[in-house]
Amino acid sequence: MSAKILVTGATGNFGRLTIDFLLNKGIAAADISALVRDEAKASDLKQKGINLRIGDYDNYDSLLAAFQGIDKLLLVSGTDLVNRSKQQLNAVKAAKEAGVKHILYTSFERKNETETSPIAFLAQSHIDTDNAIKASGINYTIFRNNLYLDVLPMFLGEKVLEQGIFFPAGEGQAAYVSRNDLAEAAANVLISGEHENKEYAMNNVENYSMKNVADALSEITNSTVNYASPSAEVYSDVLKNAGVPGEYIGMFVGFGEAIKQGEFHTESSDLEKLLGRKPASLSDFLKQVYL
C-alpha cells in the first residue's frame, strides 16, 4: 500500500513545487493531500486530483482532523514570523496525536543559535520546531535549507543593472540554492526510504559573495554591475528615505549582517546526493531572471 503524503503550505511556492515533483515522479494524486486554509485558492490542485484538507495552524482541532490517515507529513515552514513557533508546535503535536509516522520539515542553515544572531527574529521558530520534532518520538527528516537564490532579486532591487548592488553583506558568502532544487530534493526524500531521523545540509556546492553576484551579472548582461557594501546605518537610511517599510528594512539589514558574519557559508552539502545531479548554480539562476 502506498504511503499517504500530506504537504502543508500547499498554495505557496515551495508546497506547489513539491506536489508537482511528486506527480511528475509517478506518485498518484490520490496518495497526495494538500493542507490549505482556503479551498478557493487551491482549485488548480483539486483539478490535478490532489486531496484538499482544510486546516489552520492556529486551529489545533483542524490540524488533528487533517492529519488523520497520513503517513508522511511535509511541514513547510510558515510565513507568519510572529506566531510561527506556536503554530508549528501545534502542527507537531497534532501529527503525533494523529499517528503520523514521519515528519519532514523545511528548517534553515545556521551557525549562531543564540539571541545574538542578526536573524534571531527568524531563527528561533525554526529552532523551536526542530527541537519539538526531535522530542516527539516521530521519525523525522530536517532540511537545513540555505538562503534561496530566489531571494537575490529582492536583495538586489529592481534597478540593479542600472545602479549596481547596494547591500550590507560585506565580503560574506552564502551557498544560495534554488527553491526548485530544494522542492525536488524534498519530493525525492518523500518517495524513498532510509531518510528517517536525519538532518540534511541543503546547500549549494559553491559559496557566493555579493561581489560574485555583481561579476556574474556583469558577464551575463555584458555590462558593468558594481557592488557597494554600506554600513547598516547608511543602508537603513537610504531605504527609509525611499519609503521602504520599517519591518522590511530590519529584515534586509538582519540578512545582510548574517551573510557578512558567515551564517550561510558552508563546507558541506547533501543536496547533490539527494537530487542525483548538480544543483543549479548562481549563474544558471541569474540567466533565468536577467536574460
Write the SSE topology.
Blueprint: E1 5-7, H1 13-24, E2 32-36, H2 43-47, E3 51-54, H3 60-66, E4 72-75, H4 84-98, E5 102-108, H5 120-136, E6 139-145, H6 152-156, H7 160-163, E7 165-166, E8 173-174, H8 179-190, E9 198-202, E10 208-209, H9 210-221, E11 227-228, H10 232-241, H11 246-260, H12 271-275, H13 282-290
Parallel strand pairs: 1-2, 1-4, 2-3, 4-5, 5-6, 6-9, 7-11
Antiparallel strand pairs: 8-10
Q: How are the strands ordered across the major sheet?
A: 3-2-1-4-5-6-9
Shape descriptor reads globular
| Number of discrete domains | 2
What do we call the CATH homologous superfamily of the largest domain?
A: NAD(P)-binding Rossmann-like Domain
Would you mind describing this structure in some detail?
The protein is α/β, with parallel strands linked by helices and 291 residues long. It has two domains: 141 residues, Rossmann fold (3-Layer(aba) Sandwich), CATH 3.40.50.720; 108 residues, UDP-galactose 4-epimerase, domain 1. It contains 13 helices and eleven strands. The strands form three sheets. A seven-stranded parallel sheet has the order 3-2-1-4-5-6-9, with helices on both faces. A two-stranded parallel ribbon has the order 7-11. Strand 2, helix 2 and strand 3 form a beta-alpha-beta unit. Helix 1 packs across helix 8 and helix 9 crosses helix 13. The longest helix has 17 residues. The model has no long low-confidence stretch (mean pLDDT 96). This is SDR family oxidoreductase. InterPro entries: NAD(P)-bd_dom_sf (IPR036291), NmrA-like (IPR008030), NmrA-type_oxidoreductase (IPR052718). It comes from Flavobacterium sufflavum.
